[in-house]
Amino acid sequence: MEPRTSVIEKRLKDINRIIAVASGKGGVGKSLVASSLALHLAQKSYRVGLLDLDLYGPSSHIILGVKDEFPIEEKGIIPPKIHGISFMSIVYFTGEKPSPFRGVDISNIILELLAITQWGSLDFLIIDMPPGIGNETLDVIRYMKTSEFLVVTTPSKVAMGAVGKLLMILLELKKPVLGVIENMTMTDSSFIKKEVHRLQARYLGKIHFDEHLEESIGKPDRLLKTLAMKDLSRILQKIKL
Ligand SMILES: Nc1ncnc2c1ncn2[C@@H]1O[C@H](COP(=O)(O)OP(=O)(O)O)[C@@H](O)[C@H]1O
Ligand SMILES: [Mg+2]
Q1: Is the C or the N end of the chain the one with fewer CB within 10 Å?
Q2: Whose CA is nearest to atom 27 of ligand 1?
Q3: Where is 171: in which H helix or E strand?
Q4: What pLDDT score does 206 carry?
Q5: CA-proximal residue: ligand 1, atom 8 (nearest)
Q6: Going by DSSP bridges, is the β-strand pair 81-82/85-89 parallel, antiparallel, or unpaired?
Q7: What residue ranges line ligand 1, CB within 6 angstroms?
């Protein structure tokens, strides 16, 4: 057995719920939903962690406006607190340089991150997942056995095609799927809702395209007041978050 697995289990044992924000696609709003969900829960006084596992395009630190806060090394590493959220990202290891990892390396980096991070006791750990259904998704399923999935798509048929594949895999592996969020909507089309239902998943609702969102990136206080956040809060209420 991989020796780090038992260390990982120990590291995660005091975390009540692990929610992975995933999609078959990139650019659909996973990082925005993951960061906003973490902020929303922290505001409700829950103990929250956010782990950015997108090794190709980490972005949670940009959305949260992380500046000079770094992890502390002490028998592993302790994530810094950003706006009340314990925050850990691959960016702490790669800096802003592009990181051309290959398959095996990715698995190793994820294992290492999970093995060294000391989250302590948390109500929620939110994971900002990379796009697709590659090694990272399988690693989360394998090493974070209790993880639940919150799936994000856009109204696009192309995005929904990829999301459909992810949903089928999660269904086959019997992983809990909290539901599918349709992000950046501009019409009242019901195409995605029908597709999600056809795939036996729960459709959670729309987050409208918010033309002012970009101005709030890096400023959590403003982010919490955006229309996109309002839509997300309504969705989260449905799943009691
Ligand atoms: N509802 C929305 N309205 C407007 N812009 C959005 C919305 N959701 C996400 N975005 C923007 O779209 C881009 C991609 O979002 P991001 O969360 O980085 O996607 P992913 O993590 O899936 O690659 C970002 O610039 C983000 O600010
Ligand atoms: Mg992202």
Answers
A1: N
A2: 214
A3: helix 157-172
A4: 98
A5: 29
A6: antiparallel
A7: 23, 26-32, 59, 183-184, 207, 209-210, 213-214, 217, 228
Smallest-distance ligand from the CA of 184: 1
Q: What is the mean pLDDT of residues 78-106?
A: 84
> Which tokens sit at 129?
């997942």
**In sequence order, what are the residues at sequence separation of 6 or more whose Cβ sits closer than 8 angstroms to the Cβ of residue 92?**
70, 71
Q: What residue spans define the domains of the chain?
A: 5-238
Q: pLDDT band for position 9 (50/70/90)?
A: very high
Say if residue 102's pLDDT is above 80.
Answer: no
Q: Which residue has the higher pLDDT, 55 or 191?
A: 191
What mean pLDDT is predicted for residues 80-91? 94
Helices 157-172 and 191-198 meet at what angle, rounded to 10?
20
Which residue reads 């089309």 in tokens? 189
State which ligand 1 atom lies nearest to the alpha carbon of 57.
Answer: 23
> What's the gap in Å between 28 CA and the centre of ligand 2?
8
Taking the centre of ligand 1 as the mean of its atom positions, its distance from the CA of residue 158, in whole angstroms, is: 16
Burial 2-17 (b: 16+ CB within 10 A, else e): eebeeebeebbeebee
Q: Residue 90: its pLDDT value, please?
A: 84
pTM (two decimals): 0.96
Phi-psi region of 158 (alpha: psi -120 to 50; beta: other; left: phi over 0): alpha
CB-count exposure of residue 74 (10 Å: 0-12, 13-18, 19+): exposed
User: In the CATH hierarchy, which fold is given to the domain comprising 5-238?
Assistant: Rossmann fold (3.40.50)
